[in-house]
Amino acid sequence: MTASVVSIVYVNDAPAAARFYGDILGMSPSSETSGYITFDLGPGADLAVWSGQFEDLSPDVPRTSEVCLAIDGGPDELNATFEQWNSKGVTILREPHDAGFGLTFLAADPDGNRIRVAPLD
């Protein structure tokens, strides 16, 4: 059996969210409809932005789940990613800090969904 895990991020505007995620991930969507856009993250893993189920989500609604971008390269790479995202105007919720599993920081997409950047295990 082939399995794939798709992490879905609910957004107000799927094309705008796809531009945001495409920019921070450095990739283009792998599949695209008007309200559902996916990114192929590698074998068995996709990230999707979807505006079809929860119309008019407000960024003011607290978001408690996270998408975690696990990166190679240690603290230097994580700090470089933080600086790059910060210079692009990405909303930073918490600057790089040690969370017990390594250096991490927390950002948000334009809809307020959380994005954690952490070291690859």
Automatic annotation (TrEMBL):
Residues 1-120 form the VOC domain. It comes from the Bacteria. It holds the Pfam family Glyoxalase. InterPro entries: Glyas_Bleomycin-R_OHBP_Dase, Glyas_Fos-R_dOase_dom, Glyoxalase/dOase/EhpR, VOC_core. This is VOC domain-containing protein. It comes from Streptomyces coacervatus.
